[in-house]
Every structure is written in structure tokens, then in C-alpha cells.
Amino acid sequence: MNAQPLSDTEIETLRTGATGAGLLVAVSDKGFFDTFKEAGSIAKHLVAAKRSSQSPLIQRLAEGRGTGFGLTATAGDVESGTLEALRSSAELLRTKAPDELEAYRAFVLELARSVSAAAGGGDDVEAAAIAKIEGALTESGSAGEQPPE
To answer: What pLDDT, on a 0 to 100 scale, did the predictor assign at position 145?
Structure first.
């Protein structure tokens, strides 16, 4: 294990990517009441990770509050901010804590999928959001420097 300590700023980037992924799935489907169910799913997933994750990093991420996005953030802001945080997070973990990268990827994707399932989701719009999340987590280095669509 060659993990280097992560700064509070780096932890916040990791947390924004993770919780932003859940929020991105929630805002991708415009159902108002569904969004409340999905937000509750984010909170439940974080509580469960804090209690039961084998990864100290995931436990630390689950302790935080908020998503890194304000109440006035648009769906576009959430998408671009989340995907950038996820790309940065993956690169950060590859560099400083490679043993934690798979745990982080799994945590983020489980969170996104649990949000999708919270309101009976699984529709094409949410599946597309999850595919973008997965793509951001697997991009490496300069491959993540693609212009927005």
C-alpha cells in the first residue's frame, strides 16, 4: 500500500463526485416527487456506507454533508461539475491512493444505481446519466480532456 494522505480539499472533490453522481441521476428525471425519493436514497446510501464499508476512504466520504452543489445549481451545472469531479477523483486516486480506486468506483456506481431505483427509475434518461458517470470514472489522463457536448 503506497497510499498518500489526502487533503481536505481532495476529500471534498471525491465527495462531490460521489454525491454529485447521485444528484445527477436524480435531476436527469424531472419528476418532482421522484427527486425527493431519490435524495432520500442518497442519504440512506451514505449512512449505510459509513457503517459498513470496508474502505476507510469511503467511510470518510460518507461522513460529509451536502453534495457540493447549491440549491440554485442547474441540471447542466450538476452534470458538468459532477463529471469533472469524478474525472479528477479517479486521477487523484490513481496517483495517491490506487488501492482505493476500485472501492470508490463501486461506491459511486452503487450510489447512482440506488438513486435510479428509488423512484422505480431505470428509464433511459437515468441510464444515460449512469453511463456518463461510469465513463468519467474510467477515463484516464488526457482522455478526460474532451470538450463538452
So the answer is: 41
Would you say 44 and 53 are in contact if contact means Cβ atoms under 8 Å apart? no
Q: Where do we find the cell 459498513?
A: 52
Return the domain boundaries, the chain: 8-140
Q: Which residue has the cell 434518461?
A: 125
The three cell numbers locating residue 24: 445527477
Spatial distance between the Cα atoms of 47 and 52, rounded to a whole number of angstroms: 9
DSSP collapsed to 3 states, 87-129: HHHHHHHHHHCHHHHHHHHHHHHHHHHHHHHHCCCCCHHHHHH
Which of 120, 124, 96 is closest to 5 using CA atoms? 96
Q: What is the CB-side half-sphere exposure of residue 92 using CA atoms within 13 A?
A: 22
Residue 136 pLDDT > 70: yes
- Which phi-psi region, left, alpha or beta, contains residue 120 (left: φ > 0; alpha: ψ -120 to 50)? left
Report the share of the chain in percent with pLDDT over 70. Answer: 83
Instruction: Count CB atoms within 10 A of the CB of residue 27.
Output: 20
Grid cell listed for 54: 470496508
Number of neighbours of residue 55 by Cβ within 10 angstroms: 18
> For the residues 90-118, what does the mean pLDDT come to?
93
